[in-house]
Amino acid sequence: MGIFKKKDKSNITDQSAMARTVLNAIEEGVIIVDSLGTIKMINPAATAMVGHKSPELILGTKIGSLAEFENGEGMKIDPAQNKLFLAVGAKRAEKTREYILTNTQGGKVPVAITVTPMSEGRGDIIVTLRDIAKELEEEGAQAEFISTASHEMRTPVASIEGYLGLALNTQTATIDDRARQYLTAAHTASQHLGKLFRDLLDVTRLDDNQLKLRLAPVEMQGLVKEIAESQLQAMTAKKINFSFGTQVERSDRLIDQVVYCSVDIDFLREIINNLLENAIKYTPEGGSIWVNVRGDGDRALINVTDTGMGIAPDDLKHIFQKFYRVDNSQTRTIGGTGLGLYIVKQRVEAMGGNVWAESSFNEGSTFYVSLPRISDMDYHRQQIVIANEAQKERATRLAMAEKAEAMTVTTEKTEETEDTPAKTSELVEVEAETVASAIDASKTMEELAGSSTEKVEEKAKVL
Question: For residues 310 and 295, what is the distance between their CA atoms, to the nearest angstrom?
């Protein structure tokens, strides 16, 4: 750094003291390591963050032994896979907010890590650690608010959209042309609003890591073609020519590639649909859209190419950012939430892939999705594993159902046994009441008989 390169020794000392004072005062942890990963300098904030009291105890140690790291799910990060250690070893820049630092005292701190190689050729690397606990808490509260609001608004918006659809249906309502025009505009707006709320819910779930991957081995051409053809109706409505091709040229002939990947099918479906919806929106009537899948070494490469209006270079750098929308005279009349491409990027990266775009303004665009490819052997092996797991799950569900049925039968028998003494007691009481009634009836008959005899004797005496 230039401030350390003064010819005057007193100036060098002053500048070094100033730099150290600044480093000691800032709240972010700062560590400087050499090309071998040995710690040359650490400021008080970083010292406290890793759980030490004195920087002198840390100087000269390897950064790999400084602290342990976990992911957001509490799983320890293998040092061989740790982005910080890999970046330091490769002397390359890196940024991540995915890790939780576990210090020597057992404390856990979510951190934003930045790795920056120095440009002076000495091989030193600057590592900064920033406590983001408060940021994550605020982001969580914001995400919860957006999620709750979106969820609460989705139902009434769906109702509005449904009723407007009924009003526009000639079989359920009769309206004049002007009213139809107004209702059509309102129906389109309600559909846009409904999509916005759905996208907001997806984004909050993504940012909170609420959506879990369910990877399955798939043959990519068939799956991508099936998803793409679900958009044929929308393309036909705009008279857009659609083509799907997976052929690659080999010497003097064309062959069809077979490409396998392990993907979350729902994620892939959303990725392709979002890219195609964008292509349809920004391609004029009579244009073309081409979707292709091919193998590219150990990657599968999907492209969605259109002959639409294209994207300017300045906008191309930002199109995958949350809520970013290209703003020009051509796009202002086209609806959108600014979340579709952000969701695509998050979905692709969750599956270990990359997404990027190539475009020239007024010359169309091509969006590329690169995903890890698996071999034919891995594809069939994973299918067998999934089939075995499904069989085990079915067997477990069957065993649980049989156990539940057995418990139900046992309970019914127990209830019958418990009811027997009560029923016997009831029978005894009924029988006792019957006997008592019979005795009372007998006594009554005897009294009546006795009374009649006395009356006959009295009558005889009178005669």
Answer: 26
Q: CA-to-CA distance for 354 and 367, rounded, in angstroms?
A: 11
Whole-number Å distance between alpha carbons of 420 and 427: 10
Residue whose entry in the numeric block shows the structure tokens 């602290």: 67
Per-residue pLDDT tens listing for the chain (463 residues): 443 344 455 565 667 677 777 777 788 889 999 888 899 888 888 888 888 888 888 888 888 888 889 887 788 888 888 888 888 888 888 888 889 998 888 888 899 999 999 865 567 899 999 999 888 888 777 777 777 777 777 788 888 888 888 888 888 888 888 888 888 888 888 887 887 777 777 777 766 666 678 899 999 999 999 999 999 999 999 999 999 985 444 444 445 678 999 999 989 999 999 999 999 999 999 999 999 999 989 999 999 999 998 888 888 888 998 878 776 555 555 656 678 898 899 899 989 999 999 998 888 999 999 999 999 999 999 989 888 888 888 888 888 888 887 777 666 666 555 555 555 455 445 444 544 554 454 444 444 344 444 443 443 333 3
Domains of the chain: 2-131 (3.30.450.20), 134-211 (1.10.287), 213-384 (3.30.565.10)
Q: Which helix (H) or strand (E) holds 256?
A: strand 253-256
User: DSSP string covering 7-61, please?
Assistant: SSHHHHHHHHHHHHHHHHHSSSEEEEE-TTSBEEEE-HHHHHHTT-S-GGGTTTS
SS3 101: strand
Specify which residues 359 forms β-bridges with: 365
Predicted structure pTM score: 0.56
65, 68, 101, 114, 135 from 110: Cα distances, Å = 18, 12, 6, 13, 10
Residue 111 and residue 114: Cα distance in Å, rounded?
Answer: 10
194 contacts: CB under 8 Å, gap ≥ 6: 154, 157, 158, 161
The single residue listed with the structure tokens 């490409």 is 259
Helix (H) or strand (E) holding 130: strand 125-131
Amino acid at 179: A
Strands 94-102 and 247-250: unpaired
Residues in CB range of 458: below 8 A, 6 or more apart: none
